[in-house]
Each structure stands twice: as C-alpha cells, then as structure tokens.
Amino acid sequence: MNRRVMRAAALCAAVCIMVFAASAGAQQAGQAQQTATSTAKRTLVRAGHVLDVTTGKLSDAQTIVVVGDAIQSIAATSSVSAQPTDEVIDLSAMTVMPGLIDVHTHLTMNPDFDPYHELISTDAKEAINGVVNAKATLMAGFTSVRNVGAGGFTDVDLRDAINAGQVPGPHMMVSGPALGITGGHCDENLLPIHYHVVGDGVADGIAEVQHKVRQNIKYGADLIKICATGGVLSKGDDPQASQYTLEEMQAIVADAHRLGRKVAAHAHGAQGILWASKAGVDSIEHGSYINDEAIAEMKKNGTYLVPTLYLEDWQIEKGSLPPFYHQKMVDVSAVAKRNIKHAIQAGVKVALGTDAAVYPHGLNAHELDVYVNQMGMTPLAALQTATVNAADLMGWSKKTGTLELGKWADIIGVERNPLEDVRVLEDVKFVMKSGVVYKGESR
Ligand SMILES: [Zn+2]
What we know:
It is built from 14 helices and 14 strands. By secondary structure, the protein is of the alpha/beta class. About 50% of the residues are buried. Zinc ion (ZN) binds near residues 104, 106, 149 and 355.
C-alpha cells in the first residue's frame, strides 16, 4: 500500500470512528431535525427577555415560534397560546439572543505547538479533533463559524457530517488548506530540504494561485483563505513581511469572487494589509501592524477587520510555545492591541474572530471581553461583531445574525443582559441550532 492509499484508509477509519462515536444526543438531534421538518412541529421558546442585537432593545416576555429549522414568529408571550402538539421551552428566567458567530476558527486543530506533535499530525487525527471541537464550540453558544485553514480538507468533511446530523456542531463555512507562498506562514517549514515537505496550500505566481483557488473549490471550499504576510506560529518567517504580491492577491480575489467565494487574508504587516485590501479581499485576519494608510484603504473598500486578541492574553498567561514562536508572539502582542484599538476607533468594520486552536476551543466568547474592556467598544458594538457583522462578512445575513422571521432558529440564552456585562456570554445556558436544542433544555 503506498502512502496515499494508506492515508485514504486511515481517513476512512477516522470517518467510521466518527460515525460510531457520534453521541446519542447528536443522533437524537439529527432525528429531531428530521421529525421537526417532516411534521412541521411547532416549538415555543418562552423567553424572559429578547435582545435585539441591531438596536440594543430588550423586550420582555416574548415567545419565539420555531417551525422546522426556522423562526416563524416572535410576539408577546400573552398573545401566543400553546397548542396541544406544541413543544414548549421555558426560558422565562433568561435573556435570549441570536447564536454567536466566530469567523476565524480552526476546529480540526488543537493548541499543541510542540514541533514534533505538529509533524506527526494526520488528517485522521484532525478529523477526530474536529468532531470534539465542533461540539465544544456549539455548546459555548457559537452556532456558526467560518473555519479558515485545515489540512486535507478535513473541515469539508466535518461541515458535511454536521449538516448530515452525524455529529453536533455549528453551521460551518470552510476554506480547506490556506493558500501561501513557498516558505511562508502557510507552508510547512519545520524540516530540512531532504524531507521535501510542502504545505497543502502552497502556490507561487499567478497561474499557480489560480489553480489552487480552483482546486480548493473543487474539493468543497466555501471561501478562500490566504496568507498575505508572515505569521507568529510558523518557523523562520517575519509577521511584518509581505508574502503574496499585490498581483498574486488580485488574481486570487478575481477567481474566488467570480466563482462565488469570499477571500480571507491572514495579514499582520501594514503593507500586506494594504495590498490585500487593495486586491479586494473581504477580511483581514489579525491586522497587528495596521497603520493609517491601511485603515483608510480598508474603510474605502469596506474590508472587515477580524482581530484575534484573546489568544494573546491566553498565551501570555498559560501558553508554552517553542522559542522560535514565542519571541514572535511577544513582539506582536506588544503592539497589536494598540494598533487594533486605533483601527476600531477610526471606524473600520469589525467581525469577531478568535483563532480558536491557538487556545482551547469553547472559550471563544472571551474575545468579547477584550473588545469591550480593552478595546473600548460598547457592549452592543461588541455583540454586533459576533452577530450581524459576522453574518454580513460571511454573506449569511439572510440566514443568521439576528432573530427574525425565516432565519435559522439559532438561539442562545444567558442568565443576565449581556449589555450590562458581556462576560455573561462566557457561560451560555441554552443553545438551539436550526430548531434543535443542544444545551439547557427545561420543560
Ligand atoms: Zn488562524
């Protein structure tokens, strides 16, 4: 058996394990989804308070009527009486709002940066990681994610398994392998040349990047992720140095947009941010060295900024990075928050992203605390980064981001009003996704 066949067999084994390992709850959820759709059963969510994340208005004693996977109506509880066949969920002690969205996750990866562990990772292991981490993310109240970088298209299979009801997890928009230059942040640089290891997404020059965009789409990518500059968790590259040229990024964006895919650009250095925005990417991920010129370009083009800031706090407090990553983390952390705060104050559009995988999955809502208590955002603006703004960036505004008729019934409940303290979202008590309850049912 050659290596490719062995890898295919290993992946098959992983998928079989995934199927058998799917929890009873997930299978019930899948069945519940089917039942709800086939019989159009109504579920009444009796909410103590409903928070409108567009206006900040809190409405007391509301009932959200869910039919199948969608919201059918929202009205005063006094005006919605339960029919004998209705399922009634009592959230009268909770504040209810739309499910949260994280536009920068790596669900198939874990926070283990020991170089040897990185090298012995396999697609099968990553697929299994994805099953575990998708559930942790959903249980934390994140009902949608944009997954920006995974090896072997494991994110495509994870998305499909979630959509098929095999395993619990958020709605996923996935990129497959991130595109990057030879030797760049998105290549594999740990081994010397005689091992001949090349990252899945490596492509240089116009023709190669066009081919790679088309190949990623062929194998199931919903969006294209690229590395515009160097990064922190990679060996031998400089976060401030541009990697793709303006012309390469223009070619990527032209193909991706023509084929109906958005583009997310990892970019720390100011020139890379500027070029990526000029090229027409839809979001800048990280943005650590953003300057006034890049801010102006992003505002002109409507490019979203996706700061990933809580990871710095977590890494400094609890991380253990190898020396060739650690110093870069220290250098970037020293300036990123000041620059990002300046960009936010200047009015750049922001969508919440965490880079979950650099720290444990399920802590995603800690990012909101950083936006409010370190970046100076209002609590409402912070909630919007994780709802309406994130949905807008993903092109999913008609599906999620607010509680409105016809949208997915993606609903979370917390014990207090998040506008008084966003940290209440670090302890979400109730999670419904597509009309199926995954956490905190009380009837
Ligand atoms: Zn990332």
